[in-house]
């Protein structure tokens, strides 16, 4: 039986991440190799010509799963009927800008896009916020799209999760697919806490804890954490541009696991609306370990938290509480 096409919105689609992301979606990396898609691409009027160029390339690539492309600078047209929204567009921090300036620009962008999604998206639309500050942009979106369930609004920390997997796999010279259950706690910022206390590696002798195999707590508690926290900056330094390919790929991973489910026995990191689990304040968007089934995510419960982790988890929560009050001050 022919499957109906899923409508996927990508905002900021003419930018670096958008350009890397749309072919991945069209190729089935986000929703699976049999799922047809309709791509909705939104960007600002100044990028209209570039956006049209991206549409031309999508047509030229002749993707079998791609059933149509909407390329527009009109937010209502972009949001109409979408089932999944990947919010990549945002206002980047420029030299000399204060955090409040960036926050106030993004608050107004996310307020407008939230209102359009609220009125025009398909029922049950799932939203992934990628643009920074991702956690707080997701929170603003939730405020102004009250009919979208809070469980349907998430932000991207899968990139950090994948970076943590990559660092462990490099350190142990193990294939990345054998490493699982790292956790990113908190904010998609340099205060995030990459935690390996529950992570394992599948070896010839079965699953072994990462801490036992690395056997170097000094490295795991210091260098590993700062490498993952600062990886985005390191890529900008090397590439003279921000990480677009890995961000696009992890965006596909995030939606794929959310929609199609996480592998048995494994969890992933997602920025979700806190319900107070692990003593994290409710009412902020915070990255937790989650499992997904039937299109729903659930926070993994009952993990033992040591004192070192507690301090790190609380520090990143405090930053998010501050960001929230800064964002709300921009609304008034």
From TrEMBL:
Q: Which residues form the Lactate/malate dehydrogenase C-terminal domain?
A: 157-325
Q: Which InterPro entries match?
A: L-lactate/malate_DH, Lactate/malate_DH_C, Lactate/malate_DH_N, Lactate_DH/Glyco_Ohase_4_C, Malate_DH_AS, Malate_DH_NAD-dep_euk, Malate_DH_type2, NAD(P)-bd_dom_sf
What are the alphabetically sorted keywords of the record?
NAD, Oxidoreductase, Tricarboxylic acid cycle
GO MF term list: L-malate dehydrogenase (NAD+) activity
* Example GO biological process: tricarboxylic acid cycle
Tell me which Pfam families the record gives: Ldh_1_C (PF02866), Ldh_1_N (PF00056)
The answer to whether the entry has keyword NAD is yes
Q: Enumerate the residues binding substrate.
A: 93, 99, 132, 163
**Protein family membership:** Belongs to the LDH/MDH superfamily. MDH type 2 family.
In Swiss-Prot or TrEMBL terms, this protein is called: Malate dehydrogenase
What lineage is this protein's organism placed in?
A: Eukaryota, Viridiplantae, Streptophyta, Embryophyta, Tracheophyta
